[in-house]
C-alpha cells in the first residue's frame, strides 16, 4: 500500500511517499481502508519527535481517519467488515490502510460523509469538553477564543455560540477573523494589529472576560489572563505558538480565577460514559446542521506533507483534510454490501433496524415481533442468585424444591425474567449509528406467572413512544410481554424505558 512515511524525524519536507507493507491487526484491532484523514497540530509535532506519543520509525502521521472496515480482530464485536467508521488512530492515517484499536473506532451515521467524519470529532470533541465539562460555560457569559480560526479554535467559537455565550474571536489576520464572524462570533480582535488587552476592555468593560480558551500559549497568555473576570476560567488547551507560558501565581490569586487544563484524550479514556454522551450530543448538532466543520482545503495523499507545512505556516483556516485515493462519496443511506460477519440467525432475530436517533419516531406504535424461545436453566438461576445475593431456597435448593414444591422444580427470580428483557430486545432491534443505550427505568412491571426451572420463555415487544431529551438523546418506551411456554398468562409484562444516545 501507499503511505506518507516519516523515516527520520524532521519537518514535513523530510516525509516520503512510499510503497510499504499493509498493517497486520491484532485480535482487538480493526483494519480500515482510509478514505480521508484530518490534519491536526499533533501531526506537525509527532514528525519532529516533539509530541507526547513517540511511535517507532518509520511511521505515517495522521491521527483522525474515516474509511471502511476491511477486517476485524477476533475479539471485536461492535464493528464489522464493511462498516463506515471514523477512528482516532493517533498516527498512521496518511496511508491507504491503518490498523486501529477497536475502542477508538466508531460507526458513522449513514448520512455523514467521509470528509466530515475525518474532520470533526477531534476538534469539536476537545472544544466541547473544554467548554462544557471544564469551564462549565453558561449562557450570557463572555468567551474569548485565541487562535480562533484554527481547528479547535473555530470549533470553540461555534460551540460557544450554541451554548449561549458572547464570543470574542481573536486571530492573526482579518481573513481568519471573517471565518469567525461567519461562525457567529460577536466581537473580533486582530492580535497582529490590535492590542489584545485594550480591545478586551473595550468589549467587556471593567469586568473582563469570563472564560478564555487558549490553544496558542506563548506571550499572549499572560495578556489574556490579566484581562480575565473575577472567578473567570482560563482553559489551557495547547501551545501552537511553540512556547509554554510561565504563570505568575499572584495573577490567579488577584483575579480569584481558575486556570484549568484540558486534555481531551485522557478525558475520553478516564470518563468514557461522559465522553460518549458528549459525542452523542455533537452528532445530534451535526445532524441538525447546528455545527459544521469548515474545510480549508482537501489535499491528496501525495500533498500530505504540504498540508502539515501549511498548518505550521498558519495558512489553514478551519481544517485541512488529506483524501486518500480517487473516490466519490457513496450515496447516503446505502448500506455496504459486504456483510460477511452477519450470520443468518442474526438477520432472522433482528428484524427491525433503527438507523440513528431520528429514525426512532418512524417506528412508534409498531410491533417488533416475537423472539426465539429461551430455556431458563438452573445455572442461570444460580448465577442470578450469586449476582444479587438473593439465595432463597425456592430458587437454589433443588432437593428441597423436589420435596416441597408442587411440581418439584425451583423457581426463577422474578427479577431474572425482568433482566432478560434486554437480551430479548437485542433480537428484536438492531441499532445503527447510535452510540449506546442505557436502561432508564420501568413502568407498570408485573410478575404474573412464576417461571419454573427448565421452562421456556420468549418476548413480544412494541415501541410505544419516543421523547427527545434536552441533552440530545432519545428516551424510548417499549412494551414487553414475556410469554411462558404452555401458559395462557404471561410470565412478565412491563413498559421499559431506555435512553439512546
Ligand atoms: N488539550 C487537548 O486535548 C488538545 C486537543 C486538540 C488540540 N490541542 C492543541 O491545540 C493546539 C491547536 O491545535 P489545532 O489543531 O487547532 O491547530 P491549528 O489548526 O494549527 O490552529 C492553531 C492556531 O494557533 C495559532 N498560532 C499562533 N502561533 C502559531 C504558530 N507558531 N504556529 C502555528 N499556529 C500558531 C494560529 O492562529 P493565528 O494565526 O490566528 O494566530 C492557528 O490557527 C495545538 O497545540 C494542539 O496540540 C489540544
Quickly describe the structure.
With 501 residues, this protein is an alpha/beta fold.
If you had to describe this structure to a student in words, what would you say it looks like?
It is a single chain. The protein has helices at residues 41-46, 114-117, 121-134, 151-162, 174-182, 196-204, 220-226, 250-255, 264-270, 272-287, 304-312, 344-349, 378-388, 393-396, 398-404, 414-428; strands spanning 2-5, 16-19, 29-39, 64-72, 84-88, 97-101, 105-107, 142-145, 166-171, 187-190, 209-214, 228-236, 258-261, 295-300, 319-323, 352-355, 367-370, 374-375, 429-432, 437-447, 456-468, 474-484, 492-500. Helix 3 crosses helix 4, helix 3 (121-134) packs across helix 10 (272-287) and helix 9 crosses helix 10 (272-287). 28% of the residues lie in helices and 29% in strands. The radius of gyration is 27 Å and the shape is globular. The strands form 5 sheets. Strands 3, 4, 5, 6, 7, 14 and 15 form a 7-stranded mixed beta sheet that branches. It has a 6-stranded parallel beta sheet with strand order 10-9-8-11-12-13, sandwiched between helices. Strands 17, 18, 20, 21, 22 and 23 form a 6-stranded antiparallel beta sheet that branches. Helix 11 links the parallel strand 14 (295-300) and strand 15. The protein is of the alpha/beta class and 501 residues long. The protein contains 16 helices and 23 strands. The longest helix has 16 residues, at 272-287. It has 3 domains: 2-119 and 293-323, Medium-chain alcohol dehydrogenases, catalytic domain (Quinone Oxidoreductase, Chain A, domain 1, Alpha-Beta Complex), CATH 3.90.180; 123-268, NAD(P)-binding Rossmann-like Domain (Rossmann fold), CATH 3.40.50; 344-500, Hotdog Thioesterase (Thiol Ester Dehydrase, Chain A). The two termini are 37 Å apart. NADP nicotinamide-adenine-dinucleotide phosphate binds at residues 40-42, 126, 147, 149-153, 171-172, 176, 215-216, 237-242, 262-265, 311-312, 314, 316. Residues 40-42, 126, 147, 149-153, 171-172, 176, 215-216, 237-242, 262-265, 311-312, 314, 316 line the site of NADP nicotinamide-adenine-dinucleotide phosphate.
Amino acid at each position: 500500500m501507499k503511505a506518507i512515511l516519516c523515516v527520520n524525524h524532521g519537518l514535513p519536507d523530510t516525509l516520503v511517499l512510499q510503497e510499504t507493507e499493509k498493517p497486520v491487526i491484532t485480535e482487538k484491532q480493526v483494519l480500515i481502508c482510509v478514505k480521508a484523514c484530518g490534519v491536526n497540530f499533533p501531526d506537525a509535532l509527532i514528525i519532529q519527535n516533539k509530541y507526547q506519543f513517540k511511535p517507532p520509525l518509520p511511521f505515517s502521521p495522521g491521527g483522525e481517519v474515516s474509511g471502511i472496515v476491511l477486517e476485524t480482530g477476533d475479539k471485536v464485536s461492535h464493528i464489522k467488515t464493511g462498516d463506515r467508521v471514523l477512528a482516532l488512530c493517533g498516527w498512521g492515517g496518511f496511508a491507504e490502510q491503518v490498523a486501529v484499536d477497536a475502542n477508538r473506532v466508531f460507526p458513522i451515521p449513514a448520512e455523514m460523509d467521509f470528509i466530515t467524519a475525518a474532520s470533526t470529532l477531534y476538534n469539536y470533541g476537545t472544544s466541547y469538553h473544554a467548554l462544557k465539562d471544564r469551564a462549565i460555560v453558561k449562557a450570557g457569559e463572555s468567551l474569548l477564543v485565541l487562535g480562533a480560526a484554527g481547528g479547535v479554535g473555530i470549533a470553540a467559537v461555534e460551540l460557544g455560540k450554541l451554548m449561549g455565550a458572547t464570543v470574542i474571536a481573536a486571530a492573526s489576520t482579518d481573513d481568519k477573523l471573517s471565518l469567525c464572524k461567519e461562525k457567529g462570533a460577536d466581537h473580533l480582535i486582530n492580535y497582529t494589529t490590535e492590542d489584545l488587552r485594550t480591545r478586551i476592555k473595550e468589549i467587556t468593560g471593567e469586568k473582563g472576560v469570563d472564560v478564555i480558551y487558549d490553544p496558542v500559549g506563548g506571550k499572549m497568555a499572560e495578556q489574556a489572563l490579566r484581562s480575565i473576570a473575577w472567578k473567570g476560567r482560563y482553559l489551557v488547551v495547547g501551545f501552537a505558538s511553540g512556547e509554554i507560558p510561565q504563570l505568575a501565581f499572584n495573577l490567579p490569586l488577584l483575579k480569584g480565577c481558575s486556570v484549568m487544563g484540558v486534555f481531551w484524550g485522557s478525558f475520553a479514556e478516564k470518563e468514557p460514559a461522559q465522553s460518549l454522551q458528549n459525542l452523542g450530543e455533537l452528532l445530534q448538532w451535526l445532524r441538525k446542521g447546528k455545527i459544521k466543520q469548515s474545510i480549508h482545503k482537501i489535499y491528496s495523499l501525495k500533498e500530505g506533507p504540504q498540508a502539515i507545512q501549511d498548518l505550521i505556516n498558519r495558512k489553514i483556516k478551519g481544517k485541512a483534510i488529506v483524501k486518500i485515493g480517487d473516490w466519490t462519496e457513496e450515496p447516503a443511506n446505502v448500506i455496504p454490501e459486504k456483510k460477511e460477519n452477519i450470520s443468518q440467525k442474526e438477520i432472522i432475530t433482528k428484524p427491525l433496524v433503527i438507523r440513528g436517533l431520528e429514525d426512532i419516531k418512524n417506528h412508534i406504535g409498531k410491533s417488533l415481533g416475537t423472539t426465539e424461545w429461551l430455556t431458563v436453566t438452573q445455572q442461570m438461576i444460580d448465577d442470578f442468585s450469586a449476582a444479587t445475593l438473593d439465595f432463597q431456597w425456592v430458587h437454589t435448593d433443588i432437593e428441597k424444591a423436589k420435596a416441597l414444591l408442587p411440581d418439584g422444580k425451583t423457581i426463577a427470580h422474578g427479577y431474572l425474567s425482568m433482566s432478560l428483557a434486554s437480551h430479548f430486545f437485542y433480537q428484536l432491534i438492531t441499532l445503527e449509528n447510535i452510540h449506546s443505550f442505557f436502561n432508564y427505568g420501568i413502568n407498570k412491571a408485573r410478575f404474573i406467572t412464576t417461571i419454573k426451572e427448565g421452562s421456556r420463555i420468549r418476548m413480544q415487544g412494541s415501541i410505544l413512544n419516543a421523547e427527545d431529551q434536552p441533552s440530545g438523546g432519545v428516551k424510548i418506551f417499549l412494551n414487553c410481554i414475556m410469554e411462558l411456554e404452555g401458559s395462557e398468562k404471561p410470565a412478565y409484562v412491563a413498559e421499559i424505558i431506555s435512553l439512546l444516545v
